[in-house]
Structure formats: structure tokens, C-alpha cells
Write the C-alpha cells for this entry.
Amino acid sequence: AMFHDRQEAGRVLAERVSALGPSDPVVLGIARGGVVVAAEVARALGAPLDVSVVRKLGVPWHTELGFGALGEDGVAVLNDALIHDAGLSPEDIDDVARVERAELERRVRRYRGDRPPAELRGRTAIVVDDGIATGSTIRAALEAVRRRGPDRLILAVPVAPPRTVRALRVEVDDLVVVESVEPFFAVGQFYEEFPQTSDDEVTELLAAAPAPVAGAAPGGTRAVEIPVGRVSIVGDLTLPPDPVGVVLFAHGSGSSRFSPRNRAVAERLRADGLGTLLLDLLTPDEERDRANVFDVELLADRLEAAARAVADDPRTAGLPIAYFGASTGAAAALVAAADPSVPVEAVVSRGGRPDLAGVVLGAVEAPTLLIVGGADPVVLDLNRDAASALRCEHRVEVIPGATHLFEEPGALERVADLASGWFVRHLSAAPVGAGTDPA
């Protein structure tokens, strides 16, 4: 055992987190045991404490085997490969999810009572658990927290196995782990005392901590809501002084507008004078149907609607528009770019699937940059095939040694450099009023 109990683990963890110098922090403990650790971190930082509730989705005939997890605000993270191997039907998934969603909502009501969730927009969110084994449920918690718009996302835990640490590092801005060792059988092996935490204990810890209060929104950022048919999609629009254009981000499957990779690229674009609009092209309810994530036509229609909204907004009217797409979002960006109703001056794809745009590729006129990792051979071949169908100015840029998520040192920075250079060159050359609808 490395820790006497969760309280000791929290005090040790707090020292590591404090060294990061988090600005305007809010600590969120994973219920139940993670709240005990989080309370010590919050106390050391003088930060408010909130709770994050997640529920594992277990295979009905082997409940310890999780095929996904649920988080707050409708978040669902599924393991498609395990679902296939286990032979789960859509009805099986819905039955399990219905029961676990009801339990999740019960716990949220029990823990928070009348207190609203912490305001995270523009702040540093620190997600804390008492340990992580596989990381399947923590991903749901991280996605739910991302959707609340923190400026920085930190994951902090006392213990986790090295393989899990490697997998989760790309999901957050900072990852703090006190001990990462093998063999790793269970979180409890690292504690002398590891009792089950009760609902009452969680409620008492939250009630005793400072109440979360609203933080300042990041400068220049405002939430936008865009009606599309019977629903609305949301995004975060950030404009630097005197922007030369606006880049709309279409994220890929399983991601959101709070993707740390897209946020890192967007930050670089803004530093070079480009406005950014990070979008969720699907509603939380729509995301639960995995078919929607791969519906390129639907995603493209939503992206076009967002582009029209940018063209009509008094703050951005007349600014040149461009698209940045990742994974299936890259195909949606190219399909949208082929529609002449909203002029698009440039497109950049990061590890994308432009091949899914199909025959529409030949109609794209906007200069297109396809960025692919050299260690992502299947996607690289698909991008080269798609490039051969493009008739516009285009280039395939290969980053040596980079894999699909560009998590290697310096890889994502190179993506940002290439994207910014491409956008600045083409948007700066666009005629005044390029972003307006010709009609």
C-alpha cells in the first residue's frame, strides 16, 4: 500500500496539482470515493468542490465487463468493439442504459440537492478520482466536464497503470498521477484502508465545501446557438482583435467542441489573428445514435447552417470563412465546402476521412490541406486517394512518426503551424465581404 487512506492520497495529490498553478480552479470529485480525495485537493487549493457522477454500462450477463459509461448531461461513451464481440443488440444497450441513467440522475439529485452545477466556463476544471484502472468510466466524466466549457482540464489521481496513463494523456490538458506502477490489479491494492464511500459521506463533503461560483468567461468568447430544423446546435465563438477571418471546427466521431486537440489548434489560430467557432454539430440526444456520428450529409448540413449564421452575425459579417475538420468532420467540411451558397476560402483536415465525401470532392473549389500522421498508414492512403479526386489547389502534408491522434511530442504543434499558415495565406487574400451570402 502506498497510501493509508483516501484523505492521505488527497493531500499528496494536492501538492502535485498545486505545482501546476491552476488559475481559478474548480475541483470535481468522481462519486463516490473520488469525492473524498477531491475534498483534500479543494481544501489545499482553496477551491470550490463539485461532484461528477458516472455510471458503468455492464454486459447484462457479465456486469463487471463494461461496454461503456454514462456521464451527466446525456454523455454516453461506448466501446463499439466490445459491443460487437459481446453480441449486444441495440435493445440490450438501451435496457442497461435506461437503468444506469436513472441511477445516475438519482445520485445527482442526492448529492447536489438544490445547488446548481459549478460554472466551469473560463476556469480550470480539476477532475479527481481515488484511482483509475482501465479508464473506461473516467472518459465519460471528462467528456461531460468538457461540455461545460472549462478553459483548462486537468485529470488528477493518486494511482493508475502506465497503459491507462498513456491512453488518457491525450484526453486532457494536464494529467497528474502520483504513482503509476505494474502489476496493477485494483485501485484498492494501493491503500491500507479503502472502505466503500456512502452517499451520506459524499453529500456531507459537498455541503461543507465552498459553494462553486461563476467564473469569468475567457476574453472574447461567447456561446452561440444556431437553430437547425427542430433542434439547435451550440458552439463557442472567439474573436481576436481585427480578425482576418473565421475558422469553423467540425470535430470527428466521439469528440466535441471541447476536444483538447481542437482547442490547442484553435488557440494557435487566434494567436495569428483568426477567429474560431468550435461547434457541436449534433445534440446530446443525437450523439447517442452512433449512426449520426457517421452521417456526413447531416454533419455537412449543420456546418453550412453555422457558416450562414457567421455570415449573418453583425460581429463576423463580411469576414472570410474557412473549415477545419477532424475524422468524419473533415468529410463534412469538404461536402459543405462544395456548396456555393456560402463561400469558403480554405479547408484543412487533421487526420480526417476526406474519402467519405465521395464524388463531391471534385466540386470543391476551396484550397484544401490534408494533414496526416506518417504512422497512420490506412488513413494516409485514404487521404492520398481523396487528394487525387480534388480539382482545387490542394496538398497532402505528412507529419513523420505521428499517429492518428498526433499525441507524439511536437506533432500537434506542427498541425497547428501548418493549419495556421494555410488559413492565414488564403483568408488574407480573400476579397472583402467574402463571407457574405451572394444572394
About this structure: The two ends are 70 Å apart (CA to CA). The longest helix spans residues 90-112. The longest strand covers residues 62-70.
